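User: What would this chain look like folded?
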Amino acid sequence: MFKGLAALLVCVTAVGGSSAAAPQVASYLSHDGTLIKAWVYLPPGALPRGSVVALHGCGGLYASQGARKGLFNARHQAMADWLVGQSYAAVFPDSLSPRGEAELCTQKIGTRRIDQTQRRADALATLAWVAAQPWAVDGKLALLGWSHGGSAVLAATDLSRAEVRSQVAPPALAVAFYPGCAAALKAGYRRAVPLVLMLGEKDDWTPPGPCVELGMAAGAEVNVYAGSYHDFDNPVGEVRLRKDVPNGVHPGQGVHVGSNPAAREQAFARLLVLLQQAFR
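Assistant: Here's the prediction, encoded as C-alpha cells.
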C-alpha cells in the first residue's frame, strides 16, 4: 500500500466563510516524499456520489489580498461549494506551501523550483489517498485543474510516464481549465483517461492553439469559449491586465485575466454532465 495513505484527518474551521460545508484537512506524503496538505470537502449527511481532486494554478489555493486574504480564493471556494452542492467530495491539495512557495505566476518559466514533476507526484498521491478513504466510491474519481494545475492534469494522465501507467487509482475523468499545453504537445502526450479541455478563445497567457492541437491528437473533448480570457470561470471580478506575469503570448507585456459569466455557466453545465456520465 502507498506509504502516504495513513494520513491523519483533522477537522478545522471553514476555509471560505460561507462555504456549503466546513472542510477537513488531510496530510499525506506526495510521491516525491514531500508532506503535503489537502483541504477535503464532504457533502453532509451522506456518502459522496464521487470524488473530485482539484489542482490549483500558479497562484496557489489562497487569496493574496482583500477580505479573503489567506483563505481559499473565490474560484476555488466556488468550485468546492458547487461540487458539494452536487453531492461530490472535493479535495484540494496544496503543492506550493509545503515547498516554501506562495505563488509561481510572477516567476519566469524555467526558473521555477516547482514544475510538473512535483505537480504530477502530488496529483497521483492525492488520487491514491482519496481512493483509500472510507467515504470514497470505487471507480468514481475525477481529476480537475486550472492553468498550472491544468497542466498538472496532463502530466498526471500521460501514458508516456511510467508512474502514470502504474498508478493505483486512475481517474474516470480528467478536466483541465486553460492549461499550458505546449510542453505536453511537444513531448507527445498520450492520454490515459477521458480528457476534457476548457479553453478561453482570447487567452493570452496559456493560448488555446496548442491545446486544440493536443486535444485533436489525443482524442480529447475540446471546448473553446468565445470572448474568454484566462480565469474565465472566476465567479468574481472583471477582465484586467496583469503586468506582473513575465510569461504568456507576449512576454514582458502582461496577460489578461478575468471572468466571463456566460462562459463560466456553459463550462459548469458541461462539467456537471461529464461528472454524471463518468460516475454512473
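The first strand starts at residue 8 and ends at 11. If you want, I can go into more detail on any region.
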